[in-house]
């Protein structure tokens, strides 16, 4: 046998000769030894971090609370306290990255089905909360008909939109909604985001844009949008929703004036639902630019959250019997405001003499807080006129003028959430509270044509609610009157 002296080492008088085969085995053993030592070092170094990563998947946490979006949490640690106080007691979820679950297991976790996990997501409505509220309830009803899970869109600044920072229950009572629509399954936007991110096979998408049209029947056309703006503007990029060539984009034109007229045995709303039933997409994304109700001609709304109802109750108890005045000042000729205030003062005195009501709750779109009453506000040109208006009203004999500022509404909630536009602006949660107080007032006033916008969505919701309330509530002295 021929030996290749490739390694020579002398141990005393002993010489060692190795073949190439024997050297290969020796090097393999040495490399294996190095890998084992490195693994032991890595495991020892990162043992604590591995436990933190794995434990949430091995233990069930029954004390978790619904949390707002990650961006908001990073900037507002005080928001944790808000949720720990059971403000969102109706949902018990935790955002977990289910990296170890198959798609069928992810589906089962989030929509109780291993297959055909389908959602309807009205991610945007162009109107204020009073309109968007009704439409979200409508699409929730449609989701039930289509056997789809309804995504509860985020809220904020009197809007229902996917980019907003507050979860659905910041405005609404989910338990009450479930009682109104017992056959509909609901999922929070945060849960929906987790479901989407954790799917290995990304879900199919159909995007529907509801727009106004002139046809007697709904018209549908395919569109080719620029994807990036859709993704960015709607914040879909934050939970990895990517639109590729398989995504379907359609626009549905609806004439709301003839929506409920019957044609060939079907009205438009029935045909609309039949069309949606034909969709096989996992996700129906809805962009809603329709102002009117598209399913029924009843204007019932989603009930509001307990913390809003309780705050309104606190104000109403303090006021006892009261007149609610809604004055929409935007767009009004500033010089006419003084005469309007004098007319309102005379009307309030008349109501006091006839009905004996001394307290007045004033709801207005004019920013009463110091933060917004500045030269850069869109109402800055009204400042001197508004000050004169308040002087006239406050000097009205025997009348006490109150507002949300008088009662420091949501003071406790504001302290927990932190400095936020939701509590500074005239819209948002404070606007919802104003509407509730106006609905329950003994007497409700709004301005004449030269002083106030006549019938916007805010006033219309109040009138509809007071009309229903008058059927059983004897304390109401009117539905709406103009001063």
TrEMBL record:
<keyword id="KW-0328">Glycosyltransferase</keyword>
<keyword id="KW-0812">Transmembrane</keyword>
<keyword id="KW-0119">Carbohydrate metabolism</keyword>
<dbReference type="GO" id="GO:0006004">
    <property type="term" value="P:fucose metabolic process"/>
</dbReference>
<keyword id="KW-1133">Transmembrane helix</keyword>
<keyword id="KW-0294">Fucose metabolism</keyword>
<keyword id="KW-0472">Membrane</keyword>
<keyword id="KW-0808">Transferase</keyword>
<protein>
    <submittedName>
        <fullName>GDP-fucose protein o-fucosyltransferase family protein</fullName>
    </submittedName>
</protein>
<dbReference type="GO" id="GO:0046922">
    <property type="term" value="F:peptide-O-fucosyltransferase activity"/>
</dbReference>
<feature type="transmembrane region" description="Helical">
    <location>
        <begin position="26"/>
        <end position="46"/>
    </location>
</feature>
<dbReference type="InterPro" id="IPR045130">
    <property type="entry name" value="OFUT2-like"/>
</dbReference>
């Amino acid at each position: 046998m021929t030996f290749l002296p490739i390694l020579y080492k002398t141990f005393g008088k002993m010489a060692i000769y190795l073949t190439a085969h024997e050297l290969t085995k020796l090097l393999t053993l040495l490399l294996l030894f190095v890998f084992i030592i490195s693994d032991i070092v890595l495991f020892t170094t990162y043992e604590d971090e591995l436990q933190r990563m794995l434990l949430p998947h091995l233990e069930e946490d029954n004390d978790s609370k619904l949390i707002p979006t990650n961006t908001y949490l990073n900037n507002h640690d005080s928001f944790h306290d808000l949720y720990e106080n059971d403000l969102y007691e109706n949902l018990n979820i935790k955002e977990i990255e289910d990296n170890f679950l198959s798609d069928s297991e992810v589906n089962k976790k989030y929509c109780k089905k291993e297959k055909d996990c389908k959602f309807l997501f009205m991610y945007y409505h162009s109107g204020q909360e009073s309109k968007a509220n009704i439409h979200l309830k409508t699409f929730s009803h449609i989701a039930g008909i289509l056997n789809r899970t309804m995504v509860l869109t985020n809220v904020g600044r009197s809007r229902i939109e996917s980019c907003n920072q507050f979860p659905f229950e910041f405005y609404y009572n989910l338990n009450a909604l479930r009682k109104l629509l017992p056959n509909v399954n609901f999922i929070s936007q945060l849960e929906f985001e987790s479901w989407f991110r954790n799917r290995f096979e990304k879900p199919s998408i159909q995007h529907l844009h509801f727009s106004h049209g002139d046809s007697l029947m709904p018209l549908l056309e395919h569109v080719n949008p620029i994807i990036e703006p859709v993704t960015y503007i709607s914040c879909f990029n934050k939970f990895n929703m990517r639109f590729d060539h398989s995504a379907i984009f359609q626009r549905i034109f609806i004439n709301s004036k003839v929506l409920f007229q019957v044609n060939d045995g079907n009205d438009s709303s029935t045909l609309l639902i039949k069309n949606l039933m034909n969709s096989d997409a996992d996700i129906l994304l809805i962009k809603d630019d329709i102002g009117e109700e598209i399913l029924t001609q009843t204007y019932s709304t989603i009930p509001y959250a307990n913390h809003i109802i309780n705050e309104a109750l606190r104000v109403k108890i303090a006021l006892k019997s009261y007149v609610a005045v809604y004055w929409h000042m935007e767009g009004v000729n500033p010089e006419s405001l003084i005469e309007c205030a004098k007319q309102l003062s005379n009307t309030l005195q008349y109501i006091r003499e006839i009905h004996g009501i001394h307290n007045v709750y004033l709801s207005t779109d004019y920013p009463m807080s110091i933060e917004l009453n500045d030269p850069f506000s869109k109402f800055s040109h009204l400042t001197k006129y508004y000050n004169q208006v308040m002087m006239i009203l406050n000097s009205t004999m025997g009348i006490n003028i109150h507002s949300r500022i008088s009662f420091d509404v949501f003071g406790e909630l504001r302290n927990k959430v932190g400095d936020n536009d939701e509590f500074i602006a005239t819209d948002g949660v404070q606007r919802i509270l104003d509407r509730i107080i106006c609905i329950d007032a003994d007497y409700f006033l709004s301005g004449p044509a030269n002083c106030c916008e006549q019938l916007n969505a805010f006033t219309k919701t109040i009138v509809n609610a007071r009309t229903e309330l008058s059927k059983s509530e004897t304390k109401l002295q009117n539905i709406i009157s103009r001063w």
